[in-house]
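User: Please predict the structure of the protein below. I'd like the answer in structure-token form so I can feed it into my own downstream comparison script.

Assistant: Understood. Taking the following sequence of 231 residues as input:
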Amino acid sequence: PSTQQRPAVPYTQPVLQPAQPYVPQAGLSITIAQAVLNKSYTLIGSMDPYVRLKVGHNTYETFTHAGADKNPCWNKVYHCPLPNTHSVRTVSIEIFDEKALTDDQRIAYAKVAVPQSVFEGHTLDEWFPLSGKLGEAKEGSINLIISYTTMPMITLPYQRIHYPYAGVAPQHFTPQPPPEISEADVNNIKDMFPEVDKEVIRTVLESKHGNVESAVAAILQIMDGNEGNQQ
């Protein structure tokens, strides 16, 4: 018997689209080099500082220099794209002390103006004053290196990972009873704040789950508020 053959399908040459040329993106290259801080705000051990950098709508963060206290060093370079030379004229710097059990504490900050000379090719390498609880420009200084250049790469905005780290399977915990407040902790804080009643200290310690550092910070905040109301 004869077999029926399918008609041949004509071959069509594919149309190749021309490759789009790579257009380098320009922006600010910012190196967060190091800082010298005037005061350590931790009561136990040393501060663990990191920097939060804001450029336009994007936020970047350095790693934590653990134990650096008042002399942290990062030497971290960020490539921050800009749509044009007029979109960003200031960048925001904040220095935080990373905490394991409480919220990270902001210890210093600065608004840095980017001069026109940077957009004309000049590299700015300067120390900028930091502000904070000690007052305007009294917290120390930070060394930044800023230039306007074609981006060899783009640094994506970074979201800091806090404890517990991402990727760890969720676990179910049995609620723990309230921590026992030691008399030694109460006495130590009493030595620091002799005008504060022991029962108040004990109550603050209980509210902070026995964390001495958090309790001291809370008492300081209460006393600052009382002094402000008296003025």
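That's the full token string. The longest helix spans residues 212-230.
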